[in-house]
Amino acid sequence: MRALYIDAAEKAAVRTVEAPQPKTGEVLINVEYVGICGSDLHYFYEGTNGSSPSVSR
Known about the structure:
Helix content: 10-25%
Order of helices and strands: EEHEE
Distance between the termini: 16 Å
Largest sheet: 2 strands, antiparallel
Number of domains: 1
Mean pLDDT: 86
Strand order of the largest sheet: 1-2
Strand content: 25-35%
């Protein structure tokens, strides 16, 4: 599956990652559309959102 990683301020990359395997009592859903919110924009432009810094992977 594809995932967007924000590595630092104004540095993002789409990466291919393994889909998680659901455990007993969990389900895996197929997400077709997503959106972004204000906190996503803070992470992208500033590399942080309040006291939560972005984490490089």
